[in-house]
Amino acid sequence: MSIKLILLGLPGVGKGTQATKIITEYNILHISTGDIFRKAMTNKTTLGVKAKEYMDSGNLVPDEITNGIVEERLNESDTDNGFILDGFPRNISQAKELDKILNNKKSEIDMVLYFTAKKETLINRMIERGRNDDTIEVIKNRLEVNNDLTNKIADFYRDKNILKEIDAERSVDDIFSDVKKLLDNIN
Ligand code: AMP
Prior knowledge:
By secondary structure, the protein is α/β, with parallel strands linked by helices. Helix content is 57%, strand content 14%. Strands 2-3-1-4-5 form a five-stranded parallel sheet, with helices on both faces. Helix 1 packs across helix 8 and helix 6 (119-129) crosses helix 7. The radius of gyration is 16 Å and the shape is globular. 29% of the residues are buried. The mean pLDDT is 93. It binds adenosine monophosphate (AMP). Adenosine monophosphate binds next to helix 2 and helix 3.
């Protein structure tokens, strides 16, 4: 089965956890822009050095950098059998760019899973996760930066009739059970 999927939701909503479960169950490629940037930072590549100042403050890396990374990744042949995009698109300009990249490959997104939870839940989950870039100030800024943008992206895909909203206040397994039902109905 070939699924082209976007995981949408604010930081801390559990996208990464669900992504891990999806790739295990469906043997599908996971493309996380956050992971790509973190790896580049660890390896101190040119990209990593550029991305660091934005990531350290919880701001978005500029589209010129991010879109190029995603285009390069999606043009690799291992994506032909499907993929999960996690952390991209983060704004409408990235969403439109993604359409363009996929159009060029005569391809399109099948479904957008939109995970939602209360702001307090997200803050608590990010504190528990305790990543280096997860100080309380950065967490709050990251939610602020992403909230409006995420709503706009949800609208963009709702208009295309491919948005599926999932209540992510529940347990990991309950959420995944809903995810599976949706994915099993794609092909
Ligand atoms: P994440 O792991 O998805 O929460 O991403 C961590 C950080 O990487 C974000 O706070 C941004 O600084 C950067 N980042 C990840 N994905 C994107 C994106 N699509 N556009 C811009 N910046 C991004």
